[in-house]
Design brief:
Blueprint: H1 2-31, E1 37-45, E2 48-56, H2 57-63, H3 76-81, H4 83-91, E3 94-97, E4 103-106, E5 110-114, E6 117-127, E7 135-139, E8 150-157, E9 160-166, E10 172-175, H5 181-197, H6 200-210, E11 215-217, E12 227-229, H7 233-259, H8 267-286, H9 293-315, H10 322-351, H11 355-382
Parallel strand pairs: 1-8
Antiparallel strand pairs: 1-2, 2-6, 3-7, 4-6, 5-6, 7-10, 8-9, 11-12
Helix pairs in contact: 1-10, 1-11, 5-10, 6-8, 6-10, 7-9, 7-10, 8-9, 8-11
């Protein structure tokens, strides 16, 4: 009796830990918005350096304020009024060194349109103490305000193209005149892993598809009723394998086509469709419409591939190692995805027979995912802000 009591206690503890972890994923997803990116282009030829830095107006507004009259519209006049403060703020968060600190002179401020809104374009020209050797870069824009912010760097160093994603753990980097295919592969591999880990909508879609993998449905009832846990781990593994393989194959196709600029779709359309895919996957858990979840994984995976390609498109694939970089990024996405599955599947299998999983996680979790994704869809499709507090 004591062993049974403790066994039940351990099961409940594991179940609660799983539920807390799952709710934390939902909470993070609920607060997630379009990732904050800036686009940094650096051309260094000898001791001459040119910099162009595109920073989203919404990020500048968040950091130093631009909307003087509070009408939620940023005008050219309001941006000009803040130009000196903007230049000082941005320059304090970027430094280049080649034999010492490079010095810069700002050029005229401009505005450009990206797929996700308006950006201020800062342009600088400068010189470095040396005309050869490695170039060091230190980047810290918005890291104190938004840990998810990334700088997408495209660097031309004496005719050799480099690219990188600059984040809190990769804000300081050094680049040599030449780079190996192996180094390029590792760089893009890590960027692929990181991109899936910070892609809350991608993760939520994948988890919504995987939730029923450890369950068998006795009938096509509503609300998750009539389900039981699978008898063998192998059965759940095969179900997960089918979903992951279909998702991988599909997004690999469109990721490659988009990254190579063979097919291009508007960012708003892609992001809205990704949100819609989460809505459908979660709704299918509540009111089953499609029995083959791998079919959903493949169909919507084609759309998610365009989302994965957004980083590669902005970074630009290096011509000297185009295939290596593309394969590295795609493989990184798969490794990040498999890491999520490796955490999810054993825990879900342990809890598959519990009412907490069958009702709380499957049904409750699917409802939360559906509502969060529906809010994402409205925000992205109609350019609204429902999560007004972030």
């Amino acid at each position: 009796m004591s062993r049974g009591f403790w066994g039940q206690g351990v099961t409940r503890a594991v179940a609660m830990a799983w539920l807390v972890m799952w709710l934390m994923v939902w909470a993070g997803a609920a607060l997630a918005h379009k990732s904050s990116d800036s686009y940094l282009t650096v051309q260094a030829q000898g001791d001459q350096v040119k910099v162009q830095w595109d920073i989203a107006l919404r990020d500048i507004q968040f950091a130093i304020g631009l909307d003087a009259n509070g009408d939620d519209q940023i005008t050219w006049g309001e941006l000009q009024q803040k130009e000196r403060e903007l230049q000082a703020w941005a320059s304090s968060r970027l430094s280049l060194q080649r034999g010492g600190a490079c010095t810069f002179t700002p050029k005229a401020l401009q505005v450009d349109e990206h797929t996700d809104g308006s950006y201020a374009v800062l342009a600088w020209a400068g010189r470095c103490p040396r005309d050869a050797g490695p170039l060091s870069l230190q980047y810290s824009l918005l890291f104190d305000l938004d840990a998810q912010h990334r700088g997408l760097l495209k660097l031309d160093l004496d005719g050799v193209t480099h690219s990188a994603v600059l984040g809190p753990q990769s804000g300081v980097m050094q680049f040599a005149e030449a780079t190996t295919a192996g180094a390029q592969f590792v760089q893009y591999l890590w960027q692929g892993v990181w991109h899936i880990w910070i892609g809350f909508d991608h993760i939520l879609f994948l988890l919504a598809l995987l939730l029923p993998a450890v369950l068998l449905r006795r009938g096509w009832g509503r609300g998750g009723g009539g389900v039981r846990g699978v008898s063998r781990f192998k059965d759940a593994s095969l179900s997960v394998l089918a979903v992951v393989t279909a998702f991988t194959l599909a997004h690999s196709i469109t990721l490659s086509l988009a990254a190579l600029e063979i097919i291009s779709l508007p960012s708003r359309l892609v992001e809205s469709a990704i949100a819609a895919s989460v809505v459908f996957a979660a709704a299918n858990n509540l009111v089953p419409m499609v029995q083959g979840r791998w079919l959903m994984a493949f169909f919507f995976g084609l759309i998610h591939g365009f989302g994965f390609a957004s980083v590669l498109t902005e970074l630009g694939l290096p011509t000297g190692a185009l295939v290596v970089s593309l394969v590295g990024f795609n493989l990184g996405v798969e490794l990040g995805q498999l890491a999520i599955v490796a955490v999810f599947l054993p825990l879900a299998f342990v809890l598959r027979h519990t009412r907490l999983y069958q009702r709380g996680v499957l049904v409750g979790g699917s409802w939360v995912a559906l509502l969060v994704a529906l809010a994402w869809f409205v925000e992205r499709a109609f350019d609204l802000s429902l999560f007004w507090w972030i």
